[in-house]
Structures are given as C-alpha cells and as structure tokens.
Amino acid sequence: MNKILILFAHPRFEKSKTNRALLKNIGQVAGVTLRDLYEEYPDFNIDIEREKELLLAHEIIIWHHPLYMYSAPALLKQWMDMVLEHGWAHGSRGNKLKDKIIFNAVTIGGTKEAYAANGHNKFTIREFLIPFEQTANLCKMIYLPPFAVHGTHLLTEKNLNEYARLYQALLEKLAQGNFDIRITRKYSYLNDWLAKEMGANL
Amino acid sequence: MSATFLHDALIYLAAAVIFVPIAKRLGMGSVLGYLIGGIIIGPFFLGFIGEEGKDIMHFAEFGVVMMLFLIGLELEPAAFWRMRKLIFGTGIMQMGATTLLCCAALLLLGFPWQAAVACGLALSMSSTAIVMQTLREKGLTKTQSGRSSFAVLLFQDIAVIPILALLPLLAITGAQQSAAGHAFLIEGLPGWTQTLVLLAAANAVVLAGKFLFVPFLRFIARIRLRELFTAAALLIVIATADLMTIVGLSPALGTFLAGVVLANSEFRHELESDIEPFKGVLLGLFFIAVGASINFRLIVTNPLTVTILVSSIMAIKAIILFVTGKFSRLSFDQNMIFTLGLSQVGEFAFVLFAFISQLKILSAHWTDMMMGATAISMTVTPLLLLANERLILPGFGTKESSEEKEADSIDARHKVIIAGFGHFGSTIGRFLRANSVNAVILDNDSDRVDVLRKMGFKVYYGDATRLDILKSAGADDAKILIAAIDSPETNFYLVETIKKEFPHLKVMVRARSRMDAYELIDAGVKDIYRESLDTSVRLGVDTLIALGFRKYSATRAGQNFIKYDEAALKKLAVHRHDQEAYIFNTREQIEIQEQLLTADREANPTLNDHAWDSESFIEKASRDEGKA
User: Fold this and answer.
1) Which of A24, A76, B86, B192 has its Cα between 20 and 30 A from that of A46?
2) Model-level pTM greater than 0.80?
3) Domain CATH number, residue B523
C-alpha cells in the first residue's frame, strides 16, 4: 500500500475545467493526499518543515500542474527551490527522498502532435520536463514518465470524464503497488502504459 | 529684582554673546571666548565688573556641579564600575607625583614645608570645567584621551574631600577655625564616624536615585507640565548637592553619583536636555568670572615672576601627565591631548587657596600669586590645545578621527529612530528588533516607557518634537526617522521639524487618514503609511476567501488594490487643490469618497485581468479546429 502526495499548483484553479475534472474524484482513492499549493501559500511563503514532513509521510509524489510557458507555475518552482534542500533532499548526506517515486501530471493546451521536433513547439513534453526529471535524479528519486492531458482547450465533457477516470485508475494502481517501475519507464507517457494495462485487464 | 542684578546680567550675557561667537569663528572654542570676554569686561580693562566677580564665580561654580551630573547621566553604572581601575590608577599617579614635585620645587624656593605641601596639593588639581567642556566641543569625550582625562578629573573630585580635611592639620597657628562654606555637620565627630556618615551619604544618593527620584519623576511626568519637569530636574540636582555639602562631601561628586544612578532610567534624555542649558549658562558665567578675576596688576608689577611661576607649574604638571599617559598606554597624539588638556590648575584650587589663606598657611601675597597663576593657566589651556591641534598633531599620522571610525559599529552608523511607541510604533519596533535592528525609541508616555523598558526595549522618555531631545537621540547621525506618533498634528509638526533641522534624515511617516496623507504629500513627504489601509484590505481579502474565493486570487486582488489606492492617493492629492476654493473639508471628504467609488468600479483592478487566462487560446484552438 503506497501513500500518494499530489502537489497541485494552479494559480487560477477556479477557471480550469480540466483540472477540476481531474481532481473531482480523487478523494475516493484511499491513501491520496491532495496539497493545493496556491491555496496553502497565497503569499508564496512556503512552510518548508511542513512540506518536508509531508514528503516523508508519502511514497509517491506527483507534481500536478498546467504547463505554462513550457514549465510549471511559479509557486511549484518556488516549492522545489525551497523544500528540496541540500543536505536533506540532495547532496552526499541528503538521502531523505531516496527511492521515492515522483512524476509530473500535467495539463497542456497544445496537442501531442504540436510537441514534436517537426511540430509547432519544436520539442517533446519529455524534453520540456527534463528539469523535473533531473531534479528527481539529483534527489535519488525514481522518476516515472508524465501523465499528460493534451489539447485541454478542446476537450468535451465526455473527454474530460474519460481523463478523470484514467487519472483515478492510475492513482489506484500506484496506491496498490500494482505496477512494475521498469515497464512503466519504457513508455513516454504513463497514459500509454495505462491504456495497455487496462486493455490487457479488460 | 534689583537694578544691579539686571545690570550684571546684562554685562555677563552681552560679553558671552559678543565674544563666544567671535572665538568660535576664529576656531578657538567657546571656553576661550568666555575667558577673553571676562578679561575684557574685568576690572583691568573695561572695568564693568570689579571685585564682586569673585562672588559670581562661587555662584557659577554650580555649573561644574551640573556638568558632573550630566557626565554621570551619560555613564551607566556598569561602565562606571569598569572604569574604577583607570580612575584610581591614573588619579593616584597624577596627583601624587604632581604634589610631590610641586612641593619639592616650592621647598627650594624657601617655602615652609606646610605651605609647600598645601600648595602642592592645590596645584595638582585640574579644571573639570575647562577640560570637559573643551573635550565635548571637540567631540573627544569617547576617545582614549577623553576617558583618561575624565578618570583623572573624577579622582581629583574625590580627593578634594580628604584634602580639605587635611589642610587644618598643616595650619601653623593651630587655629582649627572652620572656613566659611565648610561648616560640616560631621565636624567634631570621631574619624571613623565621619567615614561612616560619608559612606551613608553616598549610599543615600544611590538609593534615592533608584527608589525616590525615578518614581518622583514619573509622578511629575504624568502631570504633563514641561516646566514642572525642568523644576523637578533642578530640584534633584540641588537637593543632592545640598545634602553632600551638609555632610561635607563634594557636591560635584554627589550629583555625579546621582547622574550615574539615573543613567539607566527612562528619563535620561529628558533630564539631559533640561539641565543642559542651565549648565551651559552657568559654566559660561564661571569662565567669564575666571577671566575677570585675573589680577593683571600683579602681572604688570612682577611680569617675570608670574611668567616663570605659571610656566613652571604647567611644565611640572605636563611632564607628570605625559608619563601617566604613557603608563596608560595612550598613543602619542592621544597623550598630547591628555597632557596639555589637564596641565592647568583647576577651579578647586581657588577653593583650596582661599582655605589655605584663611588657615594662614600661606601669605596673602603668595596666595594672590597662586590664584593669579591658576586663572592664567586656565586661560592658557585652550590656547595650548589649539596650538597642539594646529601645529603639533598634523606632523603625526594618527589623528583621533581614525580611531573613532574604527569604534563605530554598523549598528551605530545605520541608526533608526522611532518617534512614538504606541500601538503603531511598537509593532514597528518589535519587527525591527526581531530582525536585529535596535532602534532608538522616543515616547512621552512615561508609564508606557516604563513597561516597555521592563520588556527590554531601549525606550527613552521625551517629547520627540523637541530639537534637543532629537539631538540627544542621535538625529544628527541617524539614517531613518519613523514618525509614528498617535496625534496626527504632533506627527506632522515632527515631520516639519525634521525636514528643516535634519534634512539628511529619511522620514517614514504614519498617517492616520487619507486627509492626513494629503497634507503630508503637500509637505513633500514621500514615504507615507496610512495606518488603516493594509489592515482593512487584509480583512477584505479574508472576507473574499470566506465567500469562497481562491486564496491566491483574493491575495492578488488585495495587493493590487493597495497599489491602485496608493496611486489614486497621489493623483487625487494634486487634483484636490483645484477644488479647494469651493469645497469645504467635510464635503471634500464625501466628494473624494465618491470619486474613489466610481474609479474603483471602472478600474476593478484585479478580477478582470488576463493572468493565466485561457479564453483566447480556446478561441484560437477552436478556429484552428474549424479550419482543419
């Protein structure tokens, strides 16, 4: 049984249909803690000790955020800069997060096709997320491929429900430990791994 | 009030007002100005004052008593205790050696041994008045030479008492008549009882300072009559001096002790600024009287004797002082100030010589000579110091200024003064202190000052709009003054005073209302803090949150509202004057409120901004989709 910490960062959550849909049902998943960073720290004054406690109390951490200018909203970066201290999270004696699992759950306006070498945005999502991946490596954590929701501007109610169901299924699988790290890492998105798994199970 | 009193006052004050500025302008210092003024109006030049000058001198000696009270006020008991070795070490060395050498020289001149010892003791005294006044004017009191000079002077003050007790034993006639002014209560008591009484008196001053003066001053302060506080301050000084005189201790020493005890109280600055003017005037009077008392007839008839007498006395004193300075490890330049500064014979010598003369230890002729030499040596001192400063010190690399800079801590150089320690100022003070910035705090509510001092704040009692209080709080070298007084009128007055007298100070001002802020803007103040703005907006933000707004959005709305309101304040402050001709104050407020409400609705500074908005993306994405 894994405990999951969702570090959710959205400065205008009230206007985000996609994220409201994704987070609607996660309360039903056992072992999930949702941390709404912009609600916790409207003044950006992060309580570092509290955040560290939460990290220690969970095995799986999710950076859940929209993709703004090819990165996360400012407060999530602030969180990374302040909480992941040298000597605690990284450095020769910073082993507190060692072997914990971490990944991004990211909502993206553009389509998957737009994020490619020959696409509008020139690079893939995995490339844009390299700073997160390497931060995880630095902290000796296990970085999984992202869970991504593309083309958020055009999603219908039906699409949104589908993604919400998928995200919920992902959280349940992770919580139950019903996954193989080596296999998940073979996929570029967790969505793809999940589709395969669920297809196999169905 | 008699006509002669007014006439005398006129002469003395005029002499001071005319000669001191001239001396200052010529770079000679005020002491020399007073002395020269005294010489000019004295019996040998203009003759405005005659023999009664001596009486004035005795009266004006009280200035020295006040000066020691003020010196005590600046010396906290702990600091005084730390100086005890310096006081006794340098003091005993200087007095002992000077007395011995002078005594030996006088014996060679054929003086009887009793006279030689008595004169030696008197000549070993230096002038507290001249030295401390000069050092203070030159800003040297905190230097090594200043501390050593002070230590020696204080020891001499203490030594006057046993010397006065000793002199009758030297009387040739054996006549133990008591001299005028020295009719001690304890005379006739056995020696050990005298000692006990003296100790009891000193302890009484210390205890009274702690348990009587402070509650008394607190009571007076609560009545809020400024002149009553001044009267109370004078009363404390005079009462202490009187008690000391009755038991036969030096009044200067007694008031010094009282000053030290009060140095830790919240009234320190207020006392300082109340006594300071009296001390200044009395000392000035004293110097004038010294100048007037110089017997030029004596000099004219025996020019050679007087010159040799003065120069040899000063030379002996200077040599001993220089050696003492060497022992105290003073650097050359500091030692020169110490040596030349203390080389004169001081005002206590007048008292001692008068006593010596009464006891018939010394002939009238020699008493006159010695008194003349004393007055001349006092006059020469400022000139010697001037020569030292202009001619000798420039030849050496180290001047006292470099040392002062070293001693300056960062804390002292970036000083902050908070005027007004009510609910507004105290929060600022606490916040600054939490960040290791210890501001100087001025407040005129003595009850509050007392409570805050118990909590460990450095709070001083005083009216912050008074120039002298601001000066003693260090407004001259402070960096920032925070005007946080409760009354907007007083606060405004303070701001105007600061702008006029201390233009270098950055002023940060508390404004009670929008209207106060307008007036401050008109006065040219840039940093204005309306006391209700941030708090009411914060309450508004929390209201939005309670209504279900996202915290971050509500917080931004609040931040933007403050920004927008500050901008509106500046804009309307200018605009306000267009209408002033026909809108009265109350109507004006309503008018402004209306303008604000209209503008608020139009600007709606946050909720309609486009931060993180995806509407336009959605539109574009839909169009692209349509095309595809």
Assistant:
1) A24
2) no
3) 3.40.50.720
